[in-house]
Amino acid sequence: MKRKIPLAICLIMGVVMIIQFFIPHPISLAFNRTINNWVIVLMAFALILAIGNLIRHHGIRISHRQANWPYSAVTLLGMFAMAIIGLIWGIEPESLYQKIYLNIFAPLSASMFALLAYYMTSAAYRAFKARSLEATLLLASAFVVMIGFMPFAQYLHPRLPAFAEWIMQVPNMASQRGILFGIAFGAIATAMKIILGIERSWLGGKE
Amino acid sequence: MWGLTACAVSVQYTVFIILILAISIVPPTDVIAHDHPNDAGSSIIISWTPSQDNEQIERYIIFRKTLQDNEFTNIGFVKNTVFTFVDDQVQDTLSYQYKIGALADNKLYYSHPSNEIRSYPQNFHTGRINILVGIIIFGILLVIFVFRAKLGKKIFIRKIPGLEAVEEAVGRATEMGKPILYVPGLGDIDYTSTIASMNILGEVAKKIAVYDTPLIVCNRWSVTYTVAKEVVREAFATEGRPDRFKEDYVRYLTEAQFGFAAAVNGIMVREQPATNFFIGSFWAESLIMAETGAQIGAIQIAGTDQVLQLPFFVAACDYTLIGEELYAASAYLSRQPLLLGSLKAQDYGKLLVLLLIFVLTILAFLNINLLPILTIQ
């Protein structure tokens, strides 16, 4: 019974939502909006559980003085400080909440994103080592594309920019589309398997 | 004298007529209004044949009236290169008539009124028939192959190195006494890739339950967190080890994209997992996390449906599930005949679509363009 009810709900809602997709009538659209509102309500309940997990996890680390517990203290301090500041002084554009967000959080996020350049260099060094035929082909094509997209490429050879563009638009695009086909069918198959109750890994996998 | 005067008047009159004709603009014609197809009603499409003097026209102004109204009212305009207008401010209970005014030199040149029209909602989206046909064909294939699998027919599935390595990766972490890190992507639960990742998590968690290896599942979204927690708990229960499940195994971090990446990197550096799984939807943070994992020496298995992130994972991870392999993983790991049967259906579905595209492309070369039947609305 514990598994049959979720499977039944999954089947009914899956089939109903597929039918809804083909009916543009206002009643059908209103139904879709209602279901989406239910999802928002469910998300609100799930957020309580998630925040509870965050507090519990870091609370235990602090109370047991586990390794690196000060990081947990900073996490909880940051979370509660932002919640209290937002609740008391509001979140309007000129509020303290927004100032903290724009002057501390946003630059930190941007810094994290900026690290990507460093990680790209490090990963490229490893990927472009010509250890095998495939890696050598990768290195050669990447070299041609990178040089081809630079402004001075046309001075090296007038056809180099066009050749780099061809690599991106023909062999690269063809393989990307092949992968996309696989992804599309995989996604459809996964959805159908779950709706029909064939896939039950999310329920522990047993009959 | 009279003759000369008459001649002069005649010339003046002719010049006047020519001038009138020169500055007169031919209004647009053939104004046709029809209901907007495949919608929820309250929308009418108006189209017209442009004026012959289209180059002199600044814009077309659309006028509307109900059958009860006496006067037309202005409801909008389009530039002189557009000859259709969608009026989505109508009521399904009323009939309307339209006319188009061509604006040139601050003067309006009106068309004849359009036909009377009333909008109404449709009960079936005809633009999605191709999807319906696709679902039916794919559903039939799925039923056939699942039924064949049920009958015990042997199904060949090619080797997927990334999935073959799961057992080894879990075993390695157990031997080293280090945890296993699992990131089910940064997509919420409405992403199919996240659902596929949850299926894989279930299979991985079953192996972890047997080996009793610590697990860290990092979640970006609250719903994903609750689902992941239940999946892991159920997997432990299925393996008969519910006591080994710890609440701390599944963690909620943050919804902020780079905040999440920073938190996962922090966990990797502090807790030094022996194995990392990055399976689901990833964006710019993919390489930040995968490269950190490579630097701490973890064995890494990644899988994503985000084509642009695949090269990053290939460069930084030991094994990468490319595209459809992500969706095949659950069947591959569980080896359940029913799930393996569905993989075959997937392959045949792909073959059918490729054949269809091939045939339609050949026909297009022969000037028979049927490719629009593949367009999705």
In terms of topology, how is this protein built?
The complex is a heterodimer of chains A (207) and B (377).
Chain A: H1 4-21, H2 26-63, H3 69-89, H4 96-127, H5 133-148, H6 153-156, H7 160-195
Chain B: H1 2-23, E1 29-35, E2 44-49, E3 59-66, E4 73-79, E5 84-87, E6 96-104, E7 107-110, H2 129-150, H3 161-176, E8 180-183, H4 192-211, E9 215-219, H5 222-238, E10 250-252, H6 257-271, E11 275-279, H7 286-295, E12 299-304, H8 310-316, E13 319-322, H9 324-334, H10 337-365
Helix pairs in contact in B: 2-10, 3-4, 4-5, 4-9, 6-7, 9-10
Write down how many β-strands of chain A occur, each being a DSSP E stretch of 2 or more residues: 0
DSSP strand (E) fraction of chain A? under 5%
Give me the CATH architecture of the largest domain in chain B, please: 3-Layer(aba) Sandwich
What kind of sheet is the major sheet of chain B?
A: 6 strands, parallel
Helices of chain A, by number, come to 7
Overall 3D form of chain A: extended
Helical proportion of chain A?
A: over 70%
Largest β sheet strand count, sense and barrel closure of chain A? none
Structural classification of chain B = alpha/beta
Rg from alpha-carbon coordinates of chain A? 26 Å
The number of E-state strands of chain B comes to 13
Low-confidence stretches of chain B: none
Strand order in the sheet with the most strands of chain B: 10-9-8-11-12-13
Reported by name, the CATH topology of the largest domain in chain B is Rossmann fold
Number of helices of chain B: 10
- Sheet-strand content of chain B, in percent, reads 15-25%
Radius of gyration of chain B, rounded? 33 Å
Assembly status? heterodimer
The helix/strand series of chain B, from N terminus to C terminus, equals HEEEEEEEHHEHEHEHEHEHEHH
The structure class of chain A reads mainly alpha
